[in-house]
């Protein structure tokens, strides 16, 4: 009952950014608020995307100014640094004009220096606003299932504790960095994403070698399932073997992957650290983008490796299943380079 009273009398929550990730997170939060007879206020740069969550009970703000004026908590989920800079330039301007304090929760994958810059600007305002950098780990289907991993930084213990009430409606676990330094969360996210893209690079190389060596890839998948049963390894290896690398639904694009890997490489350069696996992944992703395929799933980084190994590129789903020497073999849709 205390939480309910607190919500009714204090918290008016706004959400900005309704891409695949943002929509799924916001929808889970809206579902929770609706159970308390409350509603989320949303705004999106592309207005049409707001209608889907409006049908689930969310209020659609007519402008960013309206959302800031009526919210004391604002979540943002945006695609890249440029979008974050553009939106926060307006948010900071409006936040300077209101009389109430606002907790800003930025969930995007951005470069650490940008988070520091935004935090400093927001904290300098007289309204005593708060800025939290809280990146999340997980693909859109994971966000839809409310099983994201959240990372928290910024604010103080009281603010973080208050916000966990909402974070838990969208996540399966929360990692508290316990630091006011919001750049740390961005670095943490880049390190985590490095493990992801590094795994993809390893899988792409290993699967290519297996095919060149006559090792049946379905058998390799069985080994991965038994020895490396991490969800990301299972998902990415299956996509590469089945040829789903050109799919765009619920995936992570080459363009966004290059943005993240570029951030990793820049951070490594700043900190005088070597990141050769990221360098390789960047080269392979850039090769895909240079062919005008930046909207493909980033598992398509396997294709430059296949081309260099004189194998045809994957372009679509597995078509048929054949039997060869007692093995089940997926025959993929391929394209000759």
TrEMBL record:
Keyword flag Oxidoreductase: yes
Pfam families: NAD_binding_11 (PF14833), NAD_binding_2 (PF03446)
3-hydroxyisobutyrate dehydrogenase-like NAD-binding domain span: 187-304
Keywords: NAD, Oxidoreductase
Alphabetized InterPro entries for the sequence: 6-PGluconate_DH-like_C_sf, 6PGD_dom2, 6PGDH_NADP-bd, HIBADH-like_NADP-bd, HIBADH-related, HIBADH-related_NP60_sf, NAD(P)-bd_dom_sf
Ranges where the 6-phosphogluconate dehydrogenase NADP-binding domain occurs: 12-176
Recorded family membership: Belongs to the HIBADH-related family. NP60 subfamily.
Protein name in the entry: 6-phosphogluconate dehydrogenase
Record lineage: Eukaryota, Fungi, Fungi incertae sedis, Mucoromycota, Mortierellomycotina
